[in-house]
């Protein structure tokens, strides 16, 4: 296998906190590898070290000389003042100028068009332009002349992802590529990365993505790197096998240690004369026998306030922003214990919906009634707001001095932080020093410690590690109150929700009983049925009795022949149109040929429409 990337004996520490020691791995051609670990274990740090953005304490990183690298950082860095187009063509200045010249010439339609077309052909611009159009449309990036500083964080992430994909790199390095993508975009990206011959190294917590895309998984654990040659399902199985074997080996060591301890204590004279190697082996055995494989996990065992029968009643709610209709005359009565997931493309109003029902925004019309016993906990997508210089323990102490668990046990703030895996050292760390996932975990903790009975979660899965996600899912399933969730994590939605609000655009919101997998199955079936209906009806000849109803509706011999001829003509004209479209996209045509072929396509569309109309008329009879 050809190695594209070699990581050799790499170590990294921040003060007394050692992230990893002497880890080594390689990325070979066509491998699709995911890095996974708990938050704070150094996934993003390792990616930044590989890309030369973070110093390496020991070891080295080597790339193959002749490869092109595409990189999506967790927090993209763009040049202010640049447009999206300039950033997309950052590494292809000549191509950008040719593309801009062609774009200008085709609108002006002057003598410069021939030269612009020639330049695009010389630089391979037609293939590039096709890739740009496809990827931008899938990532919902419409205005390529918009300036970077006017984009939201999510839009910047999508532009950075487009930039990495458009270049068709040999090695693609992605840090949390699914963040800020809606479900349709994620499914497209999943299919795109699976189908294309990319070599891939990525960090992601999306478990379906890991299962469908990855060929290998590397887990950062206890300062080392464990390699699993398979997808996420394989990793889960083999990781458990490895832990079981380690536990078995420790048990064996403990049993053997009893014998050796007996020898060490009963025969002091013999010990002095025995081989020193047995004494050394005893201490190594003692160290191995003391190993522990019990994993600390976040525990969300928090008391929930009693929730009455009335939770939330929405009557005729509508909301528009800047002339865009986001919610139109929506009504719903929430039930106690209901877990609702909200899905839909970016920008259709999902977060606006949450802001309206929590009182952050006023509806344009309609009413929202909360039950008297309802205490809401609202986890916002933008995350926690904290003051500069604020420590972890200060954030929690500002809310309460003690916390009551589900069992009724009362904890101090410091004990509660331990409950969420913030040890004594981390409790006095500055919040800005925490990793993205640790900050998210702290934010979630501040929401839950208020003992809400209505949880409203806007993208709670962003930046949380897989282990924390598993625990959060189990907590929400057992949660006695009601839950409303916006999330792009399909695995999370499948496990947690039992009802969907589907935002369809133009203010339309439909409800669906079931989780996301149920919804996708229903949608796939609906699309299949629509395609079946759209297929031309096959003409089947059969013998009928003269008195049957069918005989009255039979076409004449001449009409039957016309119908058969129409089917053949429609197929031929459609094929001609497809061939012409392929020619237009090939980039091989001159300007006058482009005009000629475009006119013919317009003619063919009219001819096909006319013949299809006649075919339908005859077929209906």
Describe this structure in words.
Helix content is 46%, strand content 20%. The strands form five sheets. A six-stranded mixed sheet has the order 5-6-7-3-8-9, with helices on both faces. Strands 14-17-18-12-19-20 form a six-stranded mixed sheet, with helices on both faces. It has a three-stranded antiparallel sheet with strand order 2-1-4, covered by helices on one side. It is globular. It has 621 residues and is an alpha/beta fold. The model is unreliable at 539-552 (pLDDT under 50). The termini are far apart. It has 22 helices and 20 strands. The chain has four domains: 3-235, Rossmann fold, CATH 3.40.50.300; 244-289; 312-525, P-loop containing nucleotide triphosphate hydrolases (Rossmann fold), CATH 3.40.50; 549-620.
Name a few traits of the molecule.
Rossmann fold; alpha/beta; 20 strands; single chain; 621 residues; globular
Explain briefly what this protein structure is:
The chain is an alpha/beta fold and 621 residues long. It is 46% helix and 20% strand.
């Amino acid at each position: 296998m050809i190695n594209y990337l070699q990581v050799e004996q790499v170590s990294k520490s921040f003060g007394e906190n050692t992230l990893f020691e002497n880890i080594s791995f390689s990325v070979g051609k066509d491998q699709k590898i995911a890095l996974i670990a708990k938050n704070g274990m150094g996934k993003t740090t390792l990616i930044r070290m590989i890309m030369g953005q973070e110093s390496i304490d020991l070891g080295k990183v080597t790339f193959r000389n002749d490869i092109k690298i595409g990189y999506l950082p967790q927090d993209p860095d763009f040049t202010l003042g640049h447009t999206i187009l300039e950033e997309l063509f950052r590494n292809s200045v000549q191509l950008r100028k040719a593309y801009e010249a062609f774009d200008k010439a085709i609108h002006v339609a002057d003598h410069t068009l021939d030269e612009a077309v020639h330049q695009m052909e010389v630089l391979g611009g037609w293939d590039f332009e096709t890739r740009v159009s496809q990827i931008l449309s899938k990532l919902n990036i419409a205005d390529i002349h918009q300036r970077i500083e006017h984009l939201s964080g999510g839009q910047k992430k999508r532009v950075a992802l487009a930039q990495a994909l458009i270049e068709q790199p040999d090695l693609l390095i992605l840090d949390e590529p699914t963040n800020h993508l809606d479900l349709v975009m994620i499914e497209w990206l999943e299919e795109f990365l699976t189908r294309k011959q990319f070599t891939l190294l990525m960090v992601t917590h999306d478990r379906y993505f890991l299962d469908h895309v990855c060929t290998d998984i590397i887990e950062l654990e206890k300062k080392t790197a464990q390699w699993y040659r398979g997808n996420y399902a394989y990793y889960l199985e083999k990781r458990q096998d490895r832990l079981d074997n380690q536990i078995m080996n420790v048990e064996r060591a403990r049993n053997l240690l009893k014998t050796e301890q007996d020898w060490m204590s009963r025969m002091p004279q013999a010990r002095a004369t025995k081989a020193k190697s047995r004494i050394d082996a005893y201490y190594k055995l003692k160290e191995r026998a003391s190993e522990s494989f019990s994993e600390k996990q976040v525990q969300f065992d928090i008391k929930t306030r009693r929730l009455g029968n009335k939770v939330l009643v929405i009557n005729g709610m509508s909301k528009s922003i800047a002339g865009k209709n986001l919610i139109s005359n929506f009504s719903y009565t929430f039930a106690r214990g209901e877990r609702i997931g909200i899905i839909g493309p970016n920008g259709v109003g999902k977060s606006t919906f949450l802001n309206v029902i929590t009182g952050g925004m006023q509806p344009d019309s309609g009413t929202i009634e909360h039950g008297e016993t309802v205490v809401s906990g609202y986890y916002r997508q933008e995350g926690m707001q904290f003051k500069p210089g604020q420590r972890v323990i200060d954030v929690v102490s500002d809310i309460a001095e003690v916390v009551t668990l589900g069992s009724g046990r009362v904890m101090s703030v410091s004990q509660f932080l331990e409950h969420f895996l913030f040890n004594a050292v981390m409790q006095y760390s500055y919040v800005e020093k925490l990793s993205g996932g640790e900050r998210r975990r702290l934010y979630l903790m501040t929401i839950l410690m208020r003992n809400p009975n209505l949880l409203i979660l806007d993208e709670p899965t962003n930046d949380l590690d897989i282990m924390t996600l598993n625990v959060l899912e189990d907590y929400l399933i057992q949660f006695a109150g009601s839950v409303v969730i916006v999330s792009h994590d399909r695995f999370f939605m499948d496990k947690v929700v039992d009802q969907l609000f589907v935002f369809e655009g133009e203010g339309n919101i439909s409800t669906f009983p079931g989780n996301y997998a149920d919804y996708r199955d229903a949608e796939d079936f609906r699309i299949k049925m629509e395609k079946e209906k759209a297929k031309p009806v096959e003409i089947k000849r059969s013998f009928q009795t003269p008195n049957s109803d069918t005989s009255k509706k039979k076409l004449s011999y001449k009409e039957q022949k016309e119908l058969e001829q129409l089917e053949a003509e429609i197929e031929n004209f459609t094929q001609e149109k497809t061939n012409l479209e392929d020619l237009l996209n090939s980039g091989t045509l001159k300007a006058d040929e482009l005009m000629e072929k475009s006119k013919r396509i317009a003619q063919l569309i009219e001819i096909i429409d006319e013949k299809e109309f006649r075919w339908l008329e005859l077929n209906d009879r």
